[in-house]
Each structure stands twice: as C-alpha cells, then as structure tokens.
Amino acid sequence: MTRPLTLHEDRLLPAEPSQRAVARRLYAEVRGLPLVSPHGHTDPRWFADDQPFSDPASLLIVPDHYVYRMLYSQGIPLEALGVPRQDGGTVERDGRKIWRLFCENWHLFRGTPTRMWFTQELHEVFGVREAPSAETADRLYDRIAECLGRPEFRPRALFERFNLEVLATTESPLDPLAHHEKLRASGWRGRVITTYRPDPVVDPDFEGFPRNVRKLGAIAGEDTASFTGYLRALENRRAYFAAHRATATDHGHPTAATSDLPRPDCERLFARALTGEATAEERERFRGQMLTEMARMSVEDGLVMQIHPGALRNHNPQVMAAFGRDKGADIPMRTDYVHALRPLLDLFGNERRLSIILFTLDESTYSRELSTLAGHYPVLKLGPPWWFHDSPEGMRRFRESVTETAGFYNTVGFNDDTRAFPSIPARHDVARRIDCGFLARLVVEHRLDEDEAREVAIDLAYRLAKRAYKL
Asked: What is the Cα gyration radius of the chain?
C-alpha cells in the first residue's frame, strides 16, 4: 500500500493554539520573501553552463552527504549509491538502481531534517504526491526525470523559480573561477557569487599542502617559499576573488585557535609545514596564526570572515582513503572560543572595519561563550545553527540559548550551507517557520509586541543576512 506525500500547512508551527495563531500571521509576512543564500557549496558550473541535470539520483542522492551518511550507517556501501571512488574504481552508475535503493530505505529518515527537506522538495519542486517506497520508486524516478528534461527545470530557471536573490558558492584560492567568469559574461541576471576558502593552502594537515602552496605561488606570481611571499600570494588571490564579487571568506579549521606570533616564529613554522616536519602542536599554531593573518587582511580588504570550527573531519580513514573528503564522516567535538579567540580579539576585537561570523558544532558553548562574546565584541556575529544542528530542534535551542544575551541583531539570520540545490527553499522555509514560532511565544508571553515580532521575523528571514554578508 502506497502512502501519500503531503505537506501540512502548519508544519513546525507551535501546537499551542494562541502561539500558533500568532506564528501563522508572522509566517505569512516572511514566507514569500526572496532567499538570500550567502554560504553554500553548490557547483557554479550548473549556472554557467545551464545544462539539464542528468537524472534524479545524480542530482538528489550522489552529492548529498546528509542522505548517504544515513544509508551508509545502515550498512549500504557508498559504491552502491554512486559516490565516486578516489581510484576511479567501480561504483553503481545506474541512476534508477541508486534511486530504488534510496526509496526502499526511506523509512530510515523518519524524524530527521533530511526527511523534511526531501519531502518538501519532492512535493513542491517536482509535484510528487506519493511517498518514496520500493513500490513507488520507478514512478517517482520517471516523474522527476521527465521534469529534469524540461527547460523550466534547468539550473537558472530553478534559481529564478526559487526566488533566490543571491547565492554564494565556495572555492579555494587555487580555483581559477572560470565558471564564475563565464556566468558573468553570459548576461544572465541571476546573482551567483564566490567565497574565498583558503583551507587547502593554510592548513598543513590538508592533503597536498606543500604542492598547493607552490601552485598558489605560481597562480599569484609570488615566491611562496618565503612567508612574506606566501602572504602576498594569499592577498593577491583575495583581491582576485573580490573582483569576482566575493564578499566573504570561509575557514573550516578544526578548532577556533588563533595566534599572534613574532614574525621569525611564523617563518620557522611555515618552513617546517612545507617540509612536513611540523609537529601536531606546531601545525595547530600555524593554523591559528593564519586565522589572525586572515583577520588582518579582512580589515584591509573588507571581506567578511567566517570561522567554522569544531569538526573532526574525515573521522573514518577507510572512507577517506577510498572516497576522499566530505563523505559524511565528520564528527562534532568540544570547542573552546573564549581562550582560543583571545589573541585575535586582542588585536582586532574592537576594529569597526572587521566583521567575523562564528559558527559552532558545540552547542554547549551557545550561552556560556558565543552569546557573551558576540554580545560584547563589535567584530563578532553568530552564524546560524550549522550542519548537524540545521534542524528544527537545533534552531530552537539556538534561539533559546543566545537571544537573552546576544539578542537577535548579533546573529546573521539563516544560511543553508548545502550542496543539494533543490533543497534550498525547503531549508529556508524550515528556518522561517521555527523563527516565527519562537517569536510567537515571546508575543503571547507579553515579552514582545506583535509588530516588533513581525519586524524581527523579516530581519531574520532576509535583512540580517544581506547586512552581515555585505550583499
């Protein structure tokens, strides 16, 4: 027996009747606002080439680690889901078989945000009205495949249909940004910008770090064998990204550690990192110094700085060796912000020309560290719940933990941080519903007037992200 695929109009809104009534009114004010997506990992090639997506599995399953990490946890090999191997070895290439495997295991996603996003994109983007299952898999595949063959489902058309005002991709300094150049030359009015992510050339633990640094020097025309030339090369690439409409940088360091080292120490650490002789402690100090150097550069060029610490990335060495980075094996860990950020904040914490957006995977720091830091230092803002906490309960915990100390205006609204392009509207919709529910509770508890709540709801859904990311 097949199950219908439905969306309840009041999903995620409060169950208590008086709160729900207020939340409905607030949500009506924000549901149609344009989407601002200032941080994500979609492929700029999609919009530059504007070619049809090839099939449902390659669009919705193969690139989405939220989907395949759950399936992998239940013993389904990544090869069976079409995830490419590092060595070019055999993986499933038949999109229909991959899709069937996903539909047969739809029940695994019950209660997860992935289930909510997927349900909404199937229902609203592709007009699906049957829940995935072994019985419906082929019908759903055929329907989505038929949609993907139409002009209105090409990347640029979907961008416009989703009411995206701006979408940021993420590239390393080694990227020539050819797709962004092609996109800009095309004359299309959709706004797709890049973000500067220097991890491959500032993290000695990143695979190929010495080779990456040499390539950086070749691209920038600088001698990166010296620390001075290395910094000039990084500045050169930042300017190149800014010329290609970047407004922000992004730093995926394992911790929030920062350093303020004498220049001879910087030169020594850099030399040891290039030769592979640096100890774990030295590599951490070098990463910390580079966060401080990035802050200095942001003071000079105005790029907003994002710090995304707290993940022990690629925790599973077998998956890393076979499939590479970002394959669902990243695990949150405890993160210190108070002491870790102090060297950077001692230098730049009161600098009005600098803006730093902090993210965390350690929820225990919300009220103790992050809200108090952002509630004091002018340079700091709090990014939204991220990754494992990009969920209804994660969003509620965030608002409940940080609002009393940091307020709403030391946060930056929402960003979707996704590789799964069709899920972007659903992700923003979840955030808007949760925020409206939180605001509705403040209204019925007489802690906020409804007209104030309406203004905050619009700010959280739209205006804060534009302001924080200089969009």
From this structure: 23
Is this prediction's pTM over 0.85? yes
Overall size of the chain counted in residues: 471
CA distance 62 to 164: 24
Residue 388 or residue 301, greater confidence: 301
CA 319 to chain centre: 22
pLDDT of 116-171, one tens digit each? 999 999 999 999 999 999 999 999 999 999 999 999 999 999 999 999 999 999 99
Query: Which position has the token pair 């038929």?
Result: 146
Q: 56-59: long-range contacts (C-beta < 8 A, 24 or more apart)?
A: 56/95, 56/99, 56/140, 56/141, 56/144, 56/145, 56/148, 57/82, 57/95, 57/96, 57/98, 57/99, 57/102, 57/141, 58/82, 58/95, 59/148, 59/421, 59/422
What six digits make up the tokens of 152? 């209105």
Return phi, psi of residue 312, to 5°.
-85, 100
- β partners of residue 353: none
Q: How confident is the model at residue 326 (pLDDT cuts 50, 70, 90)?
A: confident
Backbone angles phi, psi at 456, to 5 degrees: -65, -40
The sheet carrying 192-193 orders its strands as 35-37, 164-168, 192-193
- The rounded distance, in Å, linking the Cα atoms of 198 and 407 is 31
Closest to 29 in 3D by CA, of 449, 454, 424, 433: 454
